[in-house]
Amino acid sequence: MECTYCEWRCKLGEESFGVCRMYHAVGGKVVERFPDRWSYTSSRMEALPFYHAWPGARTLTIGTRGCNFNCRYCSNAYVALADPAAGADDGTHIHAMTPEELVAMALKLDCRNIVFNVNEPTVSIPGLLRLREEATRAGLPMGCLTNAYGTEESTEALAGIFDFLNVGLKGFTSSFYGEYIGVRDVGPILRNLRTLARRRHVEVTTPVIQGVNDGDLDDMADYLAGIDPEIPWHVFRLLPEYEMKDHAYPSIDAISRKLEAARKKLRYVYFHNFVGSEWVNTVCPECGMEVVERLSLGCGGDKLEGFHCTGNRCPRCGRAIRMCGEYAPTADRATAACAAESEATA
Amino acid sequence: MSLAIVDAREWQNLLDLRTGKKVKDDDPRVQAPQTATLRDVLRRHPYPGDSDPRSNRWVTDSALDLVAAYEPQLACVVYGHQYFAGRYTPMTDVQRKGMMEELFAEIDRFVARSGYEPVVVGTGDMVPLEGEIDLGKLEGLAISSHWSARYAGLHRATPRDLDHVRSLAKVERVVGRDEWLAAFPDAEAVPARVPEHLLLAEEGWTFVTTGTPMRRPVRVPGRGFRIPLSTRLGAAPSLLDIRGLVLSGAAAGKKVALIVAEGVGMNDFLLPFTPCANQTGWHYYEPGDGFYLTLSTGRHQVFAYPSGYNYLDETDEKKDLPFSGYFLDFPAHALGDDFPGKSVAAGNHSMFVHMVFGADVCMECFARNLYNQGGFGVIHRFR
Ligand code: SF4
Fold it and tell me: Do A274 and B376 touch (CB under 8 A)?
C-alpha cells in the first residue's frame, strides 16, 4: 500500500519499508516499525537554531532514526541515515520511552518546550501525535526542524503537532535537489513552506555550499519575502560532512556580500554556523537598535547574550519584533502563548 | 585582558576572551606584534579535524611555529587525536598500534626540532566499552559531565533511586557528598556544586545520562590509578608533582616542554617511563579538566568542576568566557601564571588548552562534538 506521509509515496508491505525505512504496512495500515524509540538531550533554542521562538529557553531536543532525504553533505548521517533496524547497535544512543516519560524528562530538566531536531519528523508522525497529546497536557509547546517534503496531508499534521518549525530550504531548483538531496522536485517543499508559514511560526534555514547553491540566494530571498518578509532566515555556512567531506568551506566574506540584497527584502537575515559570527543579532527593522544579542559558537552552539525587547517589542521605537513565545529561560512553563499567537495570525 | 582570535578558515575575528565581544581595531591588543604573529600562525595551520589522522601533525606543526615565533622557555603541548579517534572509531589492534606509533613519532618530531627538554605524561589507557548503565529513568537527575566514563553525579535522588542504583551490578560504588569532600580535605570546593551522590562505574562501563553525546563510544578511559611519565628532570611520584619538575627544570635554565598524550596509559606508552600516581583512594582523574588543572596547578582540582555536577544551570545563561566551555573563571595558579619566563601552549583539545595552562600565547583547535570549526588563539600576556 502507498505511504502518504511524504512525497516519495513509497509502496509498503509488511517487509518492505520505503526510503526512510521507518514505516511498513500492517493490516491495511501504515504503521511505525519502531514506535516509542527516542534519543533525547537538552539544549537551548538558539542552538537549534530558533532565534525568534522562546528566546533563551532550555528545550528537550529529541529525535528518532531515518530520513527521507539523502543529503550528500549530511552532518547527522550517523543518526539520520543509519539503518533504524540496527537500534542501539548503530553506534548511537536510542531509548525506549513512552510519551509520558519524555514529557517527564522535559519537566525534570526544566525545559520550556520540546523540539524534534535530529532527523526528519515526517518519518515519525504517529509517535509525534501521541507525544503532542501528552505535551499539551503538560503545557509544553513543541517545535521541529523539517525538510518540508511531506505530502499536503502530513504537512497539515505537522502544523497540528508543532507550534514552531524551522524549515530547511536547501536549494531553490529541482536540479539541486536531484543532485545533492536525492529527491526530484523542489515544488512540494515550496508549497509546504508556504502552508506552514500560514499556520505556524516558521523560520527557514539554508545551508550554503559555495559554487553550488549560493547563486540561488537572491531567488530564495524573493520567494520568502513573497510569503512573509518577517520570516527569519538562517543562512548557514555549511561545513560539509559525509560524501562531501572534502568540499571547501564557503567563504564568509563572499557569502556575506551576497546576502546584502536579501537584507533589503527580509527583516531578519542571519549568517552563522561558524564560531564568532557577527551576523547573529536581531536588529529592529524600524530604528536599527540591536534588540536581541547572541553569540555563535558554530555547529549548534549559539547562545542568547541579551534580550532587550519589552513584551516582544523594540524598547526604543515600539515596533513589534517577530517572536513566538516569550523570553523566560526556565521555570513557569505553563504558558503556551506561541500556539495561541500563531493560530490567531493564521 | 586576554585576547581571543577565532580562525574559521580564511576569516578571522578578534574578541575579548572574557566577554566574547568583538575587539575594536584601535584596541592596543589588536595592534600588538604578538597578535599579528599569532594570526599568521593560525592562518598557516588550518585544523584538519579531531578524527583526521593529520590532527596530531597539526599540533606539532603549530607548536613548532609558536616556539619559533615567541621563543618561550615553556611549551605545553597536548596531543588528543588518539583519544577522540580511539573513543569513537572501531579499530583493529594493528590500527591502534599504528596510531600510537604515529603519535609518538609526532612527539619525537616536536622534541627533536624544538630542542626542548620533554616531560611527557599520558592520561591513562582506554579500554573497550563493555556496556552502558542507563540512568535516564531515575526520579532524580543523573548527569555525567564532560564525557566522563567512570563518574556520574546524582541530584535530588529519591530513596527509590538510591536503592535502584545500589542494586546495579556495574555500579562499583555510590559515594555521598560528605565522603567525597572528606577524601580531598585540601581541595577547594563549593559544596553546593558537588553532586549529592557520585556513582562510580566498573571498568569498561559508562553511564548514559542527560547530555551524554549521541555517539556511543567504542572505548572509554580505563582505570587510571597510575599513569606513565617520561622525563629526565627527576622523579614525580604523583600527578601533583609534575608541575614542580617543570618549574625546577626551567629554574635550571632549561627550555621545557610539558607534553600530554591523551588516552595513552602504561600499555601504549612508547617511551621509557615511570608510573606516576593519579590516585586518591577510590578516585582517579579521567582525561578532563580535573586532570589538567591538577597537572598545571600542582594541587588537587577535583571540585573545580566536579564530576557529575549540574552544568546545565551554569551554561544556559549568559556567562563570562563564552568561548571557554564550562569554565566560569580563569583558574588560579595555572602553570603559565606562575611561570617566570615566556610560555606557549598548543593542542587539539578544544576550548581547553588556553584555560588549563594559562600560557602567554595559546593555540588550539575549535571543534564541537567532533565538528571542526577551525582554529582558536588566545593571548593572555603580551610580553
Ligand atoms: S515517509 Fe518514508 S515510507 Fe513514507 S513515503 Fe516518505 S520515505 Fe516513503
Answer: no
Instruction: Identify whether the C-beta of residue B359 lies closer than 8 Å to the C-beta of residue B375.
Output: no
In the numeric block, which cell numbers belong to residue A120?
Answer: 526528519
Does the CB atom of residue A67 touch ligand 1 within 6 A? Answer: no
In this predicted complex, what is the ipTM? 0.90
pLDDT band at A340 (very low <50, low <70, confident <90, very high): very low
| Mutate which: B318, B324, B364, vs A, most A CBs within 10 A | B318
Pairwise CA distance, residues A246 & A243, whole Å: 8
Indicate whether residue A38 lines ligand 1 (CB < 6 A).
Answer: no
A235 and A208 in contact (C-beta within 8 Å)? yes
Is cis: bond before A49, omega within 30 of 0? yes
Would you give the DSSP letter of residue A343?
H
DSSP state of A178: I
Across chain A, how many H-helices and E-strands are there? Answer: 9, 14
At the top level of CATH, which class does the domain A36-274+325-345 belong to? alpha beta
Q: What are the tens digits of pLDDT across the range B232-278?
A: 999 999 999 999 999 999 999 999 999 999 999 999 999 999 999 99
> Which phi and psi (to 5°) does residue B92 adopt?
-80, 165
Closest CA to A122 of A87, A167, A78, A92: A167
CA gap A57, B136 in Å, rounded = 22
State pLDDT tens for residues B156-205. 999 999 999 999 999 999 999 999 999 999 998 888 889 999 999 999 99
Phi and psi at residue B57, to the nearest 5°: -65, -35
- Distance between CA atoms of residues B236 and B246, nearest Å: 10
Q: Is the CB of A125 under 6 A from ligand 1?
A: no
Q: Rounded to 5 degrees, what angle do the CA atoms A216, A221, A222 make?
A: 100
User: How far away is chain A from the Cα of B225, in angstroms, using its nearest Cα?
Assistant: 28
- Whether B214 has its CB under 8 Å from any CB of chain A: the answer is yes
Domain range annotation of chain A: 36-274+325-345
Phi/psi of residue A112, each to 5°?
-90, -15
Residue in A93, A108, A295 nearest the CB of B322 = A295
Domains (range + CATH), chain B: 3-127+220-379 (no CATH), 128-219 (3.30.1360.180)
Nearest one of A178, A196, A197, A194 to A186, comparing CA atoms: A178
Does the CB of B25 have a partner CB in chain A at under 8 Å? Answer: no
